[in-house]
């Protein structure tokens, strides 16, 4: 089940933001995230804020969801009355956004455009499960202005998919990717998960070969994380499944880098590879570079000018607050300069370009020199005044960040 949100300070009923936060709107890019909290079934490893029909209960339905999101968007338009820059990227995530009719997703996108304006060539992404789209629905999404899709493939192995409790067949994701390209999507991503109990090196090699053969221009590959409260965690506690191995995860990562690199993909973030700069996920780059965004939907997080807030998690509570004319925000925090520096280092160091050494706190420069000596930071980038991870550094990225910030 979904994990708990932090407490934070109360969000005003009208959602108002401090003047200083609003004045920072024009300084960085602006994006919109739309959370769709519905899934046909819950995967065994999932603790996302998503709900099956049985888990949802009353107070919210798929049929009324788009109108509820539009109510939050109207509130957001009032809060950001001083218009932000045009929206550079919109990302519909979940959950499974494509369980909603394409016309509903299109209505939300059109309302975002009316409220703030989409930048010319704005990236518009939807996540999708492979079994949740058809050639007709994909064409409809493109007609509404979607130009990027991210499909949750996870593995090409039927056995691995069973352990993950995925519903699609092993061959469905590459077919869905081809259907998306044929429908007119400019960019198609396939997501992989590695380190699932029982996954062999050959299983993962087959998954990598499958995404390369699918002809997509973006691949995300993430190590399995076992979250407390999930069915997978319970199975591991009972001894039914083995816990993931760090050494095996490192081997899988190296295999991904080798196979994707040989196929013309370049890494641009530790877990993401693209065939060109244009294929990189611009929405995620907004997150990783400290930009501003408004998150619509239950449990969605937002960030404007150093203020971060998060909505109530349950769809029924979210709908009830908006029906009462109140912000759905549950809590918020005002990031200090130290908080923002910490996040900047944590996120930017994961990017291929890294971050300027001058952006590090003075105490971190000795740690950066040690990381360079240990082969964790690239010598050429360091000489040019940047901290950028080597391949070995990518495997130990969390430790490098800890050392730089300790």
Quick take:
The protein is 40% helix and 19% strand.
Description:
- Pfam families: HemN_C, Radical_SAM.
- Probably acts as a heme chaperone, transferring heme to an unknown acceptor. Binds one molecule of heme per monomer, possibly covalently. Binds 1 [4Fe-4S] cluster. The cluster is coordinated with 3 cysteines and an exchangeable S-adenosyl-L-methionine.
- It contains 17 helices and 14 strands.
- It has 406 residues and is α/β, with parallel strands linked by helices.
- The strands form 3 sheets. It has a 9-stranded mixed sheet with strand order 7-8-6-5-4-3-2-1-9, with helices on both faces. A 3-stranded antiparallel sheet has the order 10-11-12, with no helix packed on it. A two-stranded antiparallel sheet has the order 13-14.
- The two termini are 33 Å apart.
Number of strands: 14
Q: What does the main sheet amount to?
A: 9 strands, mixed
Strand order of the largest sheet: 7-8-6-5-4-3-2-1-9
CATH architecture of the largest domain: Alpha-Beta Barrel
Question: What is the strand content?
Answer: 15-25%
User: How many alpha or pi helices?
Assistant: 17
Identify low-pLDDT runs. none
CATH class of the largest domain: Alpha Beta
State the fourth-level CATH superfamily of the largest domain: Aldolase class I
Helix content: 40-55%
Number of domains: 2
Domain Radical SAM core: 24-266
Function: Probably acts as a heme chaperone, transferring heme to an unknown acceptor. Binds one molecule of heme per monomer, possibly covalently. Binds 1 [4Fe-4S] cluster. The cluster is coordinated with 3 cysteines and an exchangeable S-adenosyl-L-methionine.
Subcellular location: Cytoplasm
Family: Belongs to the anaerobic coproporphyrinogen-III oxidase family. HemW subfamily.
């Amino acid at each position: 089940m979904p994990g708990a949100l932090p407490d934070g300070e109360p969000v005003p009923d009208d959602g108002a933001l401090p003047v200083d936060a609003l004045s920072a709107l024009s300084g960085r890019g602006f994006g919109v995230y739309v959370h769709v909290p519905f899934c046909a079934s819950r995967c065994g490893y999932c603790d996302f804020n998503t709900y099956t029909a049985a888990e949802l209960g009353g107070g919210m339905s798929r049929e009324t969801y788009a109108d509820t999101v539009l109510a939050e968007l109207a509130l957001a338009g009032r809060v950001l009355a001083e218009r932000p820059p045009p929206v550079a990227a919109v990302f519909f995530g979940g959950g499974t956004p494509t369980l909603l009719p394409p016309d509903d997703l299109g209505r939300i996108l059109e309302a975002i455009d009316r409220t703030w304006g989409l930048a010319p060539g704005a990236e518009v992404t939807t996540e999708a499960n492979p079994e949740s789209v058809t050639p007709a629905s994909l064409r409809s999404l493109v007609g509404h202005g979607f130009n990027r899709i991210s499909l949750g493939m996870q593995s090409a192995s039927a056995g691995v998919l069973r352990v993950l409790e995925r519903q699609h067949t092993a061959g469905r994701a590459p077919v869905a990717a081809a259907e998306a390209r044929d429908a007119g999507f400019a960019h198609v991503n396939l997501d992989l998960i590695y380190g699932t109990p029982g996954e062999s090196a050959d299983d993962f090699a087959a998954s990598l070969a499958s995404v390369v053969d699918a002809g997509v221009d973006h691949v995300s590959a993430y190590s399995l994380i076992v979250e407390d409260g999930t069915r997978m965690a319970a199975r591991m506690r009972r001894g039914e499944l083995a816990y993931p191995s760090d050494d095996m995860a490192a081997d899988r990562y190296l295999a991904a880098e080798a196979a994707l690199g040989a196929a013309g993909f370049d890494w641009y973030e530790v877990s993401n590879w693209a065939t060109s700069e244009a294929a990189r996920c611009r929405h995620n780059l907004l997150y990783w570079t400290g930009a501003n965004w408004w998150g619509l939907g239950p449990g969605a997080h937002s960030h404007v000018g150093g203020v971060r807030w998060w909505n109530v998690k349950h769809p029924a509570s979210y709908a009830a607050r908006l029906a009462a004319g109140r912000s759905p925000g549950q809590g918020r925090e005002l990031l200090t300069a130290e908080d923002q520096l910490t996040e900047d280092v944590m996120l930017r160091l994961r990017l291929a370009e890294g971050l300027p050494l001058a952006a590090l706190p003075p105490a971190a420069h000795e740690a950066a020199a040690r990381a360079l000596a240990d082969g964790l930071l690239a010598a050429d980038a360091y000489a040019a005044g940047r901290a950028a991870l080597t391949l070995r550094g990518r495997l130990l990225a969390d430790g490098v960040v800890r050392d730089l910030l300790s």
